[in-house]
Design brief:
alpha+beta; Aminopeptidase; 7-stranded mixed β-sheet; 4 helices; globular
């Protein structure tokens, strides 16, 4: 990479639609998730957009040579923060960008005074799960699901700092 990947932390028009696009395309190709998954992502992004408060919520947009190559969202909840939509284009995985995002998420928690965080993922996301566990997230719930057009295990991970 000739130019470094930059991370923008303000929400701009088109960002949320691009998050949905990447999730739909990448997860269909890599894991066989169907339209129900994309609908789930769109519903969650709609919820995030309606409640978005820059003082409580975070967004990280990874850009390389004017191209969006990854995202992460922190959505405020009553007494915690939910890590959502962490995704990187395949060619940017393994570059340290995921670590940069997670370091930023932990710093965001500290800066905003959040003591607890959680996320939902599936058992198929082994690389992401390994990273989450390195940051102290622990598995707290697991349930069988067909919500994404195939049988899988959804998992909830929680972090307390």
């Amino acid at each position: 990479m000739d130019h470094p990947v930059t991370i923008r932390t303000r929400l701009e028009p088109g960002d949320l639609g691009y998050i949905a696009y990447l999730h739909g395309c990448i997860y269909a190709e890599e894991f066989g998730y169907g339209l129900h998954f994309e609908n789930y992502v769109l519903d969650a992004l709609h919820e995030f957009a309606k409640a978005y408060d820059p003082a409580k919520d975070g967004i990280w947009v990874c850009e390389h040579e004017k191209k969006k190559v990854g995202f992460m969202v922190a959505a405020h909840r009553e007494d915690s923060i939910q890590l959502r939509f962490l995704i990187l284009l395949p060619e940017y995985r393994g570059s340290g960008l995921g670590k940069r995002l997670m370091d930023s998420f932990i710093a965001f928690m500290h800066d905003r005074g959040y003591r607890r965080a959680y996320l939902w993922t599936t058992s198929e996301q082994q690389a992401a799960i390994s990273m989450y566990e390195r940051y102290g997230f622990r598995l707290t719930e697991e349930k069988e699901s067909r919500a994404f057009d195939k049988l899988l295990m959804e998992r909830r991970y929680e972090l307390s700092i």
